[in-house]
Amino acid sequence: MEERPATCASCLQNDMVDDANAGVAVATRKRRRRVPVAVGSAEDYEETCLLGEGGFGTVVKARHLATGLTVAIKRLTPPDADSQTAAASISRLAGAGSCGLEEELLREARFHEACGGSGHPFIVGFRGLVRDPTAAAADLGLVMECVDGPSLHDYLRQRRRRRHGGARIPEATARAAMWQLLTAAKTMHESGVVHRDIKPGNILVGDGRRVLKICDFGLAMATSEAPSHGPAGTLWYKAPEVLLDMRDYDARVDAWSLGCVMAEIIYGRALFAGSYEREQLVAIFDVLGVPDGGAWPEFASTAFAAEAVTELDVRRGSRLRELFPAAMLSREGFQVLHGLLTCNPHKRLTADAALKLPWFAKVEALQLPSEDDVASAFANKELHIVPSASEKRKLHFS
C-alpha cells in the first residue's frame, strides 16, 4: 500500500470533496469533484498489539512491512449483530444518515484528507485505508498516525491526581497549547470541515509533550451540509446552540469547544460539567449569564429561554472573570477565553479571529510539564458507547 493516497492536500483544499455514498460535500474554492481515497491491503501491515476494543470496533497498533512505520488502524466491525443492523447503529451514532460501515470510514477518511492528510502538524495524520482480502465480510480499516503519548484528558486527569489541585499550568504554556489547537481548527474550517467533537479526549499529546494533535473525525460534518438530526458531540463541550437543538449551527461550535478546553487547561477541571442537556445549559448560563434575547433572537424563541431566567434568578452578568482572575489569566488571555465562550454564536470568536488577538503576538514553544506516569493515549483504552440525556449515542475513544 502507498503511504498516502494519490491525492495531495493542496489539491483537496482547492477543490470539492464529494462523497456520494455518505452525502459529504466539503466546500472549498474551485471546481467540484470526488476525491478518490486509495484503499490498500491489510496484508501490508503486521498487527503488533490491540490498543482498544468495544462492541462496535477495534483499534490496533501495526507496523508497515515495507517501511517499518508504526501506525494505528481503526476498524468498525460489529462482531455480533447482523450487518444491516450494525450499519444502521453506527450511522445513528455518527449522525450521518443511513449509510453503512464502509461509508462511515470513507466519510471520516475524506475529512482527514481535506484537512491535510498526514501533512498537518496539529491534526493526527491519515495514512490511508486498508481492506483485509481474507475477511469473509467487508473489513475496512482507517490507517492513522500512532501518537506515542496520552490524550489531553488523561494528561490533565493524572495531573489533578498527582498534584491534588496544586500547581496550575503556566499561562505561557496554555497559550502555546491553544495556538496549536486553534491553528488546527482554522485549517479544518478553511477546508470546509466542522469537527463537532473537540474535547480533551480527542486531543493527543505527542513528541515529548511538545505537540497537541486533534483526532477522531467520526462526528465531523462539511460546512456545506446541514447539521444532522440530534445534537452531536460530548456534553461538557457542546455549544449552547447545539444543546438547544438549533439546526443552523456552523464551525463556531468548534470554537466554543476550544474555549472549554482552554478553560480546563488553565482552571484544572471542566468548567461546565452538567449531567444532561438542560443541566449543562444551566451550568453555562450560571457562569456566563443568560443570553440577551434581543441580540440572539434564535435563543429568545426557544422554550428554555424563559425557564432559564427563572432558574438562574435573572443572572445577566458574567462571572467568568471571577473564576479566571488576573493572577491566573492576563487581560489578553481572558479576551481570548471570553471571546470563545460567548453564548451567542454570532458574536463568538472564530478560530481565525482568535489567532489574530494580542495574546498570540508572541508564542513560545509548547512544553507541557512532565507527568511520568501518564500512559500512552491508546494504552488500556476501550471503545465506549455513552448515552446522553436525549438518548442519543455515539462511538468515541476515551
TrEMBL record:
PROSITE patterns assigned to the protein according to its UniProt record, in alphabetical order: PROTEIN_KINASE_ATP (PS00107), PROTEIN_KINASE_DOM (PS50011), PROTEIN_KINASE_ST (PS00108)
Q: List its EC numbers.
A: 2.7.11.23
User: Could you cite one Gene Ontology molecular function of this protein?
Assistant: RNA polymerase II CTD heptapeptide repeat kinase activity
Gene3D superfamilies with a match to the protein in the record: Phosphorylase Kinase, domain 1 (3.30.200.20), Transferase(Phosphotransferase) domain 1 (1.10.510.10)
- Substrates-to-products reaction catalysed: [DNA-directed RNA polymerase] + ATP = phospho-[DNA-directed RNA polymerase] + ADP + H(+)
Swiss-Prot/TrEMBL keywords: ATP-binding, Kinase, Nucleotide-binding, Phosphoprotein, Serine/threonine-protein kinase, Transferase
Every Protein kinase domain range: 45-360
**Residues where ATP binds:** 74
Task: Give the family this protein belongs to, as stated in its UniProt record.
Answer: Belongs to the protein kinase superfamily. CMGC Ser/Thr protein kinase family. CDC2/CDKX subfamily.
- Which PANTHER family does the record cross-reference, listed alphabetically? CELL DIVISION PROTEIN KINASE (PTHR24056), PROTEIN KINASE DOMAIN-CONTAINING PROTEIN (PTHR24056:SF395)
The protein's name in its UniProt record = [RNA-polymerase]-subunit kinase
Q: Which organism is it from?
A: Urochloa decumbens
